Amino acid sequence: VARDGPEAVKLARQSRFDVVICDLRLPGIDGYEVVRRIKALPEGVRTRCIIVTGGGADLTDPLRADPMMVAAVLTKPYDIEELRAAVEQS
């Protein structure tokens, strides 16, 4: 668990993750930039990233349309089955 965007990227540099679930609105840098930075890491290339948002955010970012970058975008509130399906499909 990371408290902000920079901490999330730092954790990704230190460890390898199969799946990252990242809020879109984070202090420091937003979720899309976190995904960009994680995917730029050699060990992050295969990390599956899911963005979650409370809505009201710009979901037109090109990352959203690129399945190589973001496996899914979920709008809060989402249920556990929706999250589970996104993780399994990604």
What's the topology here?
Elements: H1 5-14, E1 19-23, H2 31-40, E2 48-53, E3 72-75, H3 80-89
Parallel strand pairs: 1-2, 2-3
Helix pairs in contact: 1-2
Question: How is this structure best summarized?
Answer:
The chain has three helices and three strands. The protein has about 90 residues and is an alpha/beta fold. It has a three-stranded parallel sheet, with helices on both faces.
Describe the structure.
With 90 residues, this protein is α/β, with parallel strands linked by helices. Helix content is 33%, strand content 17%. The protein has three helices and three strands, in the order αβαββα. The protein has helices spanning 5-14, 31-40, 80-89, and strands at 19-23, 48-53, 72-75. It has a three-stranded parallel sheet with strand order 1-2-3, sandwiched between helices. The longest helix has 10 residues, at 5-14. The radius of gyration is 12 Å and the shape is globular. The two termini are 20 Å apart. The model has no long low-confidence stretch (mean pLDDT 87).
Mean pLDDT: 87
Beta-strand portion reads 15-25%
What is the first-to-last residue Cα distance? 20 Å
The outline comes out as globular
The run of helices and strands is HEHEEH
Find the count of extended strands (DSSP E, 2+ residues). Answer: 3
Biggest sheet strand order reads: 1-2-3
Share of helix, binned = 25-40%
- Count every helix, treating DSSP H or I runs of 4 or more residues as helices: 3
Give unreliable regions as ranges: none
Major sheet attributes: 3 strands, parallel
The chain-level structural class is alpha/beta
Rg, rounded, reads 12 Å
